[in-house]
Design brief:
By secondary structure, the protein is of the alpha/beta class. The chain is built from 18 helices and 22 strands.
Length: 620
Amino acid sequence: MKPKPDSCVGCQLYSPPWGKPDGFVPADGTGDNGVLMVLEAAGEHEEEAGKPTVGKAGHYLWSQLARVDLERDPFRIHNVLSCRPPDNALTKMPYEAEAIAHCAPNLDATITDMQERCQQNGKHFTILTLGRIAFQRIMGLTKQDPLLKHDYIGYVHRSDKYSAWVMAGPHPSRLMQGKHHLVPVLHFVTKRAIEIATSGFRYHEPTYLRDPGPSTFAVWTRECLDALQSEKGYLAFDIETPRKQGRDEEEVSREDDDDYTILRHSFAYRPNEAVSVPDRAEYAGYLEELYGSSYPKLVHNANYDVPRITARMPINGSIIDNMLAWHLLNSALPKGLGFITPFYVQNCRMWKHLADRDPAGYNCQDSDMLLQDFLGIKDGLVANNQWEVFNRHIVQLGKVLSYMSAQGVCRDDLKRHEAEEKLSVRLDVTNRRIQATVPQEARRLHPKHGYKNEPKDISNLVKATFTVPILVCTRCGKKAVSKRHVAPRQHLENVCEGAHLTEVIEQVERWAKPLEFKVSKVGLLKYQDVVKQKPIISRRERKITFDEIARKQLLKKYPGDKLYPLIDEYLELQKLLSTYVGVTGAADGVIHGGMPIGRDGKIHTTFTQNPSTLRLASQD
């Protein structure tokens, strides 16, 4: 292994317990193509060879790039760390920040050298970062930077510090860990970096109309509708809501949110032009004109936007969901607009992190990028002979489903009442079986610390051990006293008057009332603690969950447990009763929950297609 230079002395990775004085891995490659590839740190094989990207991840990287005729030698390659951290672990380790800072001069020297090489070769210096740490280091970002919370991969960024264009791509080790579907993204960003190094880059500056006055918006509306009539184009629209603003559309598409508040609307009918207006009364007439026009509409995630708009005003014309079009074309890739855009609009700036800083501009760019993305996606569908399938089975079918939704269906009140009675009986029976299954120790007790004094009637009560704070008199030593114990007494001498009371924690036996077991996270965690079971931790959210997938895992892990099948049955009955049938209030006789009834006395369901599976469903 190559010895580390003197500049490494003092770094936590130079000496025990975290490091050693050898294993230095300098930069490698000619850099003739003008691209400096920056990864995170050396691995075991790189440490031994003194050369970056020669281990398993490196072999994977170059074998995948060879599929698109890209070779190693023309790149200049370096890591954020010029050595190997212990067990290849860098993120969230105690030495992470100090090691990256100490190693910065090594990478900076390579960057300076690469700048000179690019000047000599007539290249536009471009840095391709693979992995989050590399991108964060080159761009000088903190871990909390809003930019890192959104899709930054694929966009062209600018580093003023290094006078370089910066592209970001996925780290090869991440692709090897079950993310092979992102290999086309690696191909794209690498080829794009070479294109920029060869030909240079310039951002295109769009023309966005932010919060125009009503009269200006009226002129824009008329010009838009006239242009759509003559050009036969598409009207892209987007709304912002308190829950949606600044969030990924794919994430929002999984929510069943009943907040129909709209903050603003944006529209685009020509690339690089858009308008955004707040949701206020003075704009309502023009909004109705735009949404009500007969021209085809584009939206990204129709399941979320369309119901919120149609609750206020009708949308006419074909409604084309860009998210579904993209999914049909690239079913394995993420579906957020921020992820899709750099593949079709290659000279735009990243914007998904600007929701708070520039809400109107953010809203404008949503519609503009939606329009431009769709035009590219449509070309792809046509080239793959998929456009007619999409148009017939999604767009045209959507018109039929919209008509069905508008007509509605009648509710049979007698049948609904019968269903409510049957489901209520079944739910009560299942709940009684749950109560009989759950051990006494897993139930919550009331009061929280038991009754201080023994109740006169102890039927339906249990005696349990509680860990409680009690007051002890420091003068007489009596326990479980109150402040009255040391207070002065009228006509009587109190030997403990003025004494100090000390709080101590003790275990005491008290009577308490066991409460009904509730099917909740708190209740299930206590049940698992009592029966000595381990909960399921969501890999995605990294927290304990009892969702449907977790319950299936628990059934498989603990096949003899009698509670989990009952919970599934209970939740299914509860869902049927509350969401579809409804419950008649004992006090007011009003039906709570169930399928909502419109003013015409009919149920108007909304038909949706799941963005991930294209499965047709309906929701109220």
